[in-house]
Design a protein that fits this description.
166 residues, 8 helices, 72% helix, extended
Amino acid sequence: MWRAILAAMTALMLIGTVSVWAQQRPAPGPGPEAQYPHRELTPEDRRAFLDARIAALKAGLELTPDQEKNWPTFEQAIRSFAKLRVDHREAMRTATPPADPIERLRRRGEAMTSTGAALKQLADTAQPLYQSLDDGQKRRFQILARHLRPHWRHHHGLDEGRERNR
C-alpha cells in the first residue's frame, strides 16, 4: 500500500512541476540577438563554416583520382551559390521594403531568377561528379550535402517573430 501511495505522490509531484515549468515564460530582457548570440555571424564565421562543410563533404566522399577532377568546378559552384545567398540576405536587410506590392513581387521574382540560375549552375557542375560516384558515395553525398544548405535557423525556431519581406 505504501508503494502505491508513494508512486501516486511521486506522479503528482512530477505532474505539478512539469505543469509549472511549462507555464513559465522567459523573463523580459534583451532582444533575440542576446538569446541567440550565434544568430549574427560575421563574414569570417560564415566563410569558415562553409569551408568546414565543403571539407566534410569532400572527406566523406573519399574521391578517387578520376573523381577528383570534377571537384574544383563543383566546389566553385557551391561557393558561388553561398555568396549569392549572402548577397541576397544583405540586400534584403539593407533595402527599404517597397510599399507597392507589385514592386515587392518584382524584386522577389528577380531574386528567384538569379537563385534559379545559380542552382542550375550548381546542378550542371554536380552532375559529372555525382554520376562518377559509386552507390556508397552517392548515399554519403546525399547525407553530407544536406549540411551545405544554410537552413539551420528554420529548424531551431530562430525565425519566429521575424518579419519577412518576401
